[in-house]
Amino acid sequence: MAPFLVSLRVVLLSLRVLTVAFLVITVIILSTNSVTIVSQGNSLKFHFKDVYAYRYMFSAAIIGLLYAVIQLFFSISELATRTKNPFNYQLDFYGDKIISYLVATGSAAGFGVTKDLKDTFLALVVLDSTDPVDKLFSRGYASASMLLFAFFCLAVLSVFSSHTIAKHQFS
């Protein structure tokens, strides 16, 4: 096998590993994102599950993580055996595109709801301290950013899978 193809496969495997890492970080940050807000003697427990957009972001990250782990397994086996199942070309092509769009929309939902909720909270609620709110929304931005980085990795992988499937269909 040509050294170029081996190094390309290593790059693709590295992108898959990065995707898994970004998605795991997203899931961890989101699942631990809760805060107790104290306002005028009343306390309110706020968790990521209370906001539909955060739930969507979490679901997109979980689905993307499942797909990325499956693809990581296929990439490692392909690199080890130096053979590729023809079914994997289709899985790479369609899966990378669908999952990348799912992850991108999850990231966009996270950024949008975090900005809107933070502005609303600070405008409508009299807070004893803004530290808990800042912590909650900083984690929202961090998880949306990690999801965006996962999208970038999946988008690059999608370009390579498009090239690969076109090369194999017309050769």
List the SSEs and their pairings.
Elements: H1 3-31, E1 34-39, E2 42-47, H2 52-81, H3 86-124, H4 131-169
Helix pairs in contact: 1-2, 1-4, 2-3, 3-4
Family: Belongs to the Casparian strip membrane proteins (CASP) family.
Membrane topology: Multi-pass membrane protein
Organism: Brassica campestris (Field mustard)
End-to-end CA span: 18 Å
Per DSSP, the total helix count is 4
Number of strands: 2
How does the major sheet shape up? 2 strands, antiparallel
How many discrete domains? 1
- Order of strands, main sheet, comes to 1-2
Report the structural category.
Answer: mainly alpha
| Estimated share of beta-strand residues | 5-15%
Poorly predicted residue ranges: none
Please state the average pLDDT score: 86
Radius of gyration: 20 Å
Helical percentage: over 70%
Shape: elongated
| SSE arrangement, N to C | HEEHHH
Describe the structure in your own words.
The protein is mainly alpha-helical. The chain has one domain (20-33, 46-169). Helix content is 80%, strand content 7%. It has a two-stranded antiparallel sheet. Helix 1 runs antiparallel to helix 2 (52-81) and helix 3 (86-124) packs antiparallel against helix 4. It is elongated. The two termini are 18 Å apart. The mean pLDDT is 86.
Features of this protein?
single chain; 171 residues; mainly alpha; two-stranded antiparallel sheet; 4 helices; transmembrane; membrane; CASP_dom; cell membrane
Could you write a compact summary of the structure shown?
With 171 residues, this protein is mainly α. It is built from four helices and two strands.
